[in-house]
Amino acid sequence: MRNALNLMRSRFFAPFFWTQALGAFNDNVFKNVLLLLVTFVAVPRLGWDAGLINNLAAALFILPYLLFSAWGGQLADYRDKRRLIIALKWLELATMSCAALAIWLDAYALLLGLLFMMGTQSALFGPVKYAILPQHVQRTELVQANAWVEMGTFLAILLGTLGAGILMALGGSQARLLIGATLVIVSLCGLGAALLVPPAPAQSRGQLKWQPLRGSWQVLSSAWHTPRIFRALIGISMFWFLGACYLTQLPLWTSHVVRGQAGAVTMLLAAFAVGVGLGSLICARLSAGRLEVGLVPIGAFVLALAGFDFAAHPALGTGINTLAELVAMPRFWWMLLDLTLIGIGGGLYIIPLYTLVQIRSSDEHRARMIAANNILNALFMVLSAAFGAVLIGVLGISLHGFFAALAGISLLMALVCAVLQARPMMRISIFVLVHMWYRLRIRGIENIPDEGAAIVVCNHVSFMDALVMGGASPRPLRFLMDKPIYESPWLNWFFRMAGAIPVASERRDPKGMRRALDLVSKALQNGEVVMLFPEGRLTRDGHMNEFRRGIDLILKRDPVPVVPAALSGLWGSWSSRYDGVPFKGMPRRFRARVCLSFGTPVASETVTRESLQASVAALKTSIDNHASNKPFKAPAMLADTDNVTAGPAQTRD
């Protein structure tokens, strides 16, 4: 929480956050006021067709994303983003000033035109919104920053929707005056916040060209040629597809299933928006400054399970329920809980994907990747409208069937993501389980290099060491493990997925030892981190055994930095040899305090077995003495790559 508050106080983030949040609030006040005016005033007074006008309004809002997103990406890449944000806030102020005048004069046709202008401003602002963050916040703060932006956006959408309803309920000239004043004042506040945004210089040079169709095709083609980014963009667009489907059909669900009125719609929307905000913050908390793509399939599974439960709710009576009556119904609160969980799943799902696009995109083309994302989002939102029209309007599927279909799509997404990100998902699952079983405290986590090959060596206390180490490490670790355990018919699939490296003793299988060393060498040459227990076996008395020569053989082949580490607190546990035989009887301790310390990396040129053993022993003594006096730093937990710890195994070198 302290890091989050520091971020919100930072002059490099807070002004941008409020610029974005105020803009999202204003957009939704205007959009919802317009829809209410058109539906309840313009249609009866002017004889307009309600369905035609609502569809026209939706098209006017989406069309700018298809026309201007690519150009907006070029602008954000080729121009200082601060200047661009300020210019776009001036455009917002001009648009909202005209909107205030049009509302006062009942100029409904002009309001529809201004909706297009608002969509244009949003389409141009979109690429800047996510492209500026990597320039203003550290990489370790990027997940947290994205979480705050996403939470702020959804809460602003909710408050804007509520504000529009409250202002419209006043009626008459008073409502028109307050709506206009709100639009202009909020625009001025957003402009003031934009003026405080620090400079963000252009990341590349090029000639600006507005080529709506060709430009859109070019940015999509550029994203397509970066498969990992393009998959993330499709994943983000699927979230907006599902979100648009839920939000579009919630009023109909409220009418036919909840049997409620406008207040019930607001509560359902609020539950979804609050859920997304909570999910974003939970994601930031679990990630602790690291990109953790393993959360993506987990978030999709939450979306699916909560979605199926939501779709199974029966109608709440046969008559019209007042809001007070609904609040007294446990089933209504169950619906709200389901929508909150759907939102939480969405937050867990979407934040790592946005962060992946920001990190994996080059500085010169990051804004254009965000522009490609906006184009795809717009296309998928149009597809969501067609999906709803076909299923409900043409095929006559019930609302329960429609929401069950959305849950089925979420489940399919979860399965695909689980296959593509199996190791990261396994890793975060292990992390959660380890932290449920132990009170794990970690220090020196920053000593593991952010990039490049490295070896981590640690004392070997229990069969849980590998899980604890792998769950705590900020990068995925490749483990050497005993070959007979690796070949266990029940767990071999797990060890294979984890990327474990099987090894037998040189005396038992000389060729197998050489194959294991070859696999370790290949992993190091690929820039991975390999975890070793140089003792080669579990301690039988709680004291460290002598380090074996395997570490010397590995470093002779591949001289890479070595990070010493030490574990304390697992001796005497169920998985240690404290009683002679591990896993004897039932576990005696739950939530035991376990301490893990990483030392300063040592250059391979100065490493010897003896010096490493001395470093690990010194770390262990330090944490043994330190653990009872003051807490360790909270772990920086999770990582963004495709490997994960191996299972609980005795290892050999």
From TrEMBL:
Stretches that traverse the bilayer: 50-72, 84-105, 111-132, 153-171, 177-197, 229-250, 262-284, 291-312, 332-354, 375-395, 401-420
Pfam families recorded: Acyltransferase, MFS_1
Presence of keyword Transmembrane: yes
Membrane topology: Multi-pass membrane protein
PANTHER family named in the record: MACROLIDE-EFFLUX PROTEIN, MAJOR FACILITATOR SUPERFAMILY (MFS) PROFILE DOMAIN-CONTAINING PROTEIN
Phospholipid/glycerol acyltransferase domain: residues covered: 454-570
Subcellular location(s) per record: Cell membrane
InterPro entries attached to this UniProt entry: MFS, MFS_trans_sf, Plipid/glycerol_acylTrfase
Region Disordered: start-end pairs: 630-653
Originating species: Kushneria pakistanensis
Principal subcellular localization: membrane
Record's keyword annotation contains Phosphoprotein: no
Protein name: MFS transporter
Keywords: Cell membrane, Membrane, Transmembrane, Transmembrane helix, Transport
Entry-linked CDD domains: LPLAT_AGPAT-like, MFS_MefA_like
